[in-house]
Each structure stands twice: as structure tokens, then as C-alpha cells.
């Protein structure tokens, strides 16, 4: 369902079906325990290429410190199947 290319603050997705997408950014040291930013929550996307952007800010609007983060993208199709990917991301300032 998901094909992904992750750049520094941009991720491009190609969905095979219509899906609802959740994109969360975690501090790497927290092992997916602490969410730093919620980029999308149940965002409907069409089949085909889609782009989600993260501005390197926390959910509270502050710049995140430099370091390694994990981006978790979950896509759930209307028919029920769900897929997840977790991709490392480095932020430098």
C-alpha cells in the first residue's frame, strides 16, 4: 500500500488505494515512546502520489533540537487493511 521516499522534511507517498493517513514523529531515543509532532491524523489521501510536509517543529510549535528522529506513517484503507512504515530522519541546524 505504501511506497515512501523520505527527505529531510518532506515525504512522498504512493498509495495504491484511497486511505486515511497518520504521520507521527518520535524522538529516536524514546523508541517510539514520545511523540514530538503529529503531522497528519486520519488525513484522507487519494490513490497515487501524495506529499506530507513536516516543518521540524514540535506539536507545540517550537523547533525540535538537532538529532535523530523516527517518522511513523500509518495508512488504513477504507476496506480495512493497514500498513505502517518507520523511517529514521536526521534534523540538523
Attribute tags:
93 residues, mainly beta, Immunoglobulin-like, four-stranded antiparallel sheet, three-stranded antiparallel sheet, 62% strand, elongated, disordered N terminus
Q: How are the secondary structure elements laid out?
A:
Layout: E1 2-6, E2 10-15, E3 19-27, E4 35-45, E5 48-53, E6 67-77, E7 82-91
Antiparallel strand pairs: 1-2, 2-5, 3-4, 3-6, 6-7
Explain the overall architecture:
By secondary structure, this protein is mainly β. It has one domain (2-91): Immunoglobulin-like (Sandwich). It contains no helices and 7 strands. A hairpin with a 4-residue loop joins strand 6 (67-77) and strand 7. It is elongated, with a radius of gyration of 13 Å. The model is unreliable at 1-10 (pLDDT under 50).
The portion of residues assigned to helices is under 10%
Question: Looking across the biggest beta sheet, what order are the strands in?
Answer: 4-3-6-7
Instruction: Assign an overall shape.
Output: elongated
Overall mean pLDDT: 75
Order of H and E elements: EEEEEEE
Q: Main β-sheet, in a few words?
A: 4 strands, antiparallel
Radius of gyration: 13 Å
- The total count of strands amounts to 7
Any idea what the CATH architecture is?
Answer: Sandwich
Terminal CA distance: 33 Å
Q: What class would the helix/strand composition place it in?
A: mainly beta
- Helix tally equals 0
Text of the CATH class:
Mainly Beta
Number of discrete domains: 1
Percent of residues in β-strands? over 45%
Enter the CATH topology name: Immunoglobulin-like
What are the low-pLDDT stretches, counting only 5+ consecutive residues below 50? Answer: 1-10
